[in-house]
Amino acid sequence: MTINKTIENETLVLTLEGRLDTSTAPLLETTLVPAFDEAATLMLDFSKLAYISSAGLRVLLTAQKTAKEKNVPMTITGVSEEVMNVFEMTGFSDILNIT
């Protein structure tokens, strides 16, 4: 998985490409930790994300909790049908802000 980082206005955009699984979840986690201190808002672009595992879901859950604690809005965009099915089956579609 690759993570491309761009800043648009005061929004930090992280574009994920590939698979978010056990081997790549730590990369996202280490990218997200400082991200909440860098930007007023955070957007995760999943338009190039092909797959998400439970390890990826765990990172997103931790990120959502951190976003609330630090009062940094976090949005997920470009979610494929396959990834959205995972979010819906696990209840994450109710927890995350998905546009």
What does this structure look like?
- The protein is an alpha/beta fold.
- It has one domain: STAS domain (Transcription Regulator spoIIAA, 2-Layer Sandwich), CATH 3.30.750.24.
- The protein has helices at residues 25-38, 54-70, 81-90, 92-95, and strands at 2-8, 11-20, 41-52, 74-77.
- It has a four-stranded mixed β-sheet with strand order 1-2-3-4.
- The model has no long low-confidence stretch (mean pLDDT 96).
Task: Write the CATH fold name.
Answer: Transcription Regulator spoIIAA
> What structural class should be given to the helix and strand makeup?
alpha/beta
Which consecutive residue ranges, at least 5 long each, have pLDDT under 50? none
By CATH, the architecture is named: 2-Layer Sandwich
Number of helices: 4
Please report the total strand number as a whole number. 4
* CATH-assigned homologous superfamily: STAS domain
Distance between the termini: 22 Å
Largest sheet: 4 strands, mixed
The percent range for strand residues is: 25-35%
Element order: H for helix, E for strand = EEHEHEHH
Overall body shape: globular
Helicity, as a percent range: 40-55%
Mean pLDDT across residues: 96
Query: How many whole angstroms does the radius of gyration measure?
Result: 12 Å
Q: How many distinct folded domains?
A: 1
Strand order in space, largest sheet: 1-2-3-4
Give the C-level CATH assignment.
Alpha Beta
